[in-house]
């Protein structure tokens, strides 16, 4: 069997580990998660394709390595409802509602209406104290946004890993909110216009 040629982007999975490690040390590194929001949009809007998702996504590469190369995936088929439009678009709307909530809470902290929450919320429910990663003197809303973004990134990483363990390695990619959004952009970009 021919061995697959390795490219530099096959090692992007290391970025996932670096990102979560840095956020564990200093919460301000969580801002780097915006790269994962911006790059897929740049590729979709600029190139009209899902090249980022298919090749350059660090999470997709991480799931591929852990699921296929390390062999942690059970490789089961996902249920049809998880592949359907209702679930994918519903999850995307929910995900972005949580993202805009992070922005709103950061605004509340910046306006001094609410105090900063030095915690990471996992699965939108469980608050874990994370105060060692924040030091006084940092603009409170900047830190609050970082706590919120890290919470969102960690939650989605946990969901992605669980999907990888139970189903095929890159099952997360089927219902990834950024993937659904970029697919929608690509379809809209190439939709024939009425004359």
From TrEMBL:
Keyword annotations: Membrane, Transmembrane, Transmembrane helix
Species assigned in the record: Anaerovibrio lipolyticus
Membrane-spanning residues: 12-45, 86-107, 141-167
Lineage: Bacteria, Bacillati, Bacillota, Negativicutes, Selenomonadales
UniProt-recorded name of the protein: Membrane protein
């Amino acid at each position: 069997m021919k061995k697959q040629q390795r490219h530099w982007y096959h090692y992007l999975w290391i970025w996932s580990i670096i990102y979560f490690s840095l956020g564990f040390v200093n919460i301000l590194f969580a801002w780097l998660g915006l790269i994962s929001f911006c790059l897929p949009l740049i590729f979709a809007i600029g190139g009209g394709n899902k090249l980022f998702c298919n090749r350059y996504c660090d999470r997709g590469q991480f799931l591929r390595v852990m699921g296929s190369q390390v062999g942690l995936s059970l490789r089961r088929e996902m249920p049809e409802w998880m592949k359907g439009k209702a679930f994918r678009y519903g999850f995307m709307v929910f995900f972005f509602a949580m993202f805009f909530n992070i922005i709103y809470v950061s605004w509340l902290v910046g306006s001094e209406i609410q105090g900063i929450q030095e915690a990471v919320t996992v699965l939108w429910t469980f608050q874990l104290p994370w105060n060692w990663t924040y030091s006084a003197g940092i603009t409170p809303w900047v830190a609050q946004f970082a706590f919120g973004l890290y919470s969102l990134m960690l939650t989605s990483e946990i969901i992605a890993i669980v999907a990888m363990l139970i189903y095929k390695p890159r099952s997360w990619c089927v219902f990834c909110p950024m993937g659904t959004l970029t697919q929608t952009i690509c379809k809209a970009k190439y939709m024939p216009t009425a004359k």
